[in-house]
Amino acid sequence: MMINGIIGHPLKKPRSIKLWKKFFKKKGIRAKMLAFDIKPKKINSFFRMIEENKNFKAMAVTMPYKKKVIRFLTKQDSFAKNAKAVNLIVKRKNSLFGYNTDVYGALMTVNKIMKNYSSIAILGMGGSGQAIFNFFFKKFTNKRFYLISSKFRFRNNRVSIFKSLNEEILKEKLLIINCTPIGSSLKRTFNNRSPIKLKLIPKINKKSFIFDIIYSPKKTLLSQICKKNKLSYTNGLKMNTLQADKALKIAFDKSN
Question: Is the entire prediction scored with pTM above 0.85?
Fold first, then answer.
């Protein structure tokens, strides 16, 4: 029986397990889908194990390993290379191949409206924020980027970095992408909070669009605020579903 999983630390009821198991049942695939909650000091021995295990097939990758796993890979697809991060690993002929379906899911979520925005603001430059920025920056060469981060550094005339959002930025017609965990169910301290300060919500250009990559819970404080203020908004549920579908196709479609 094929062994599959999702690697991260800590792991708290990852949605991928349910989606992959549903796929296996639908396709009649005899496979396990496991949660690999691996501590950083165990990462080397874990990868030795999956390289040696003849039954290992594929795994999703979540924080904090989306960059750290790259050194174990033989090859990466263009999405992973441009994003400089991996969220899917597939074993083929004893070699590990890396993919990034997260940025694919993000792109497909907003692709139809991208033409409407010349500026993109990304809140949070952690793993997901950096991956989306790296990919979008290379793909959309006519866009300007506002990155909200206290630590991230990047020099380019199309990129401006701020420690926090301000009124001047929000006056513009923006595609705003929240890549912070604020508002998610990952920790109690994130719940019922907004990644955009409440006093700044009225300052947001009414033609802006807010893409919140959080999918759990489905209704966050930010989603409720946007609805109340008639701001265009979508959460990360579509992105998460699209990336999982893409990952399953890559891993189990024999034509790939």
Answer: yes
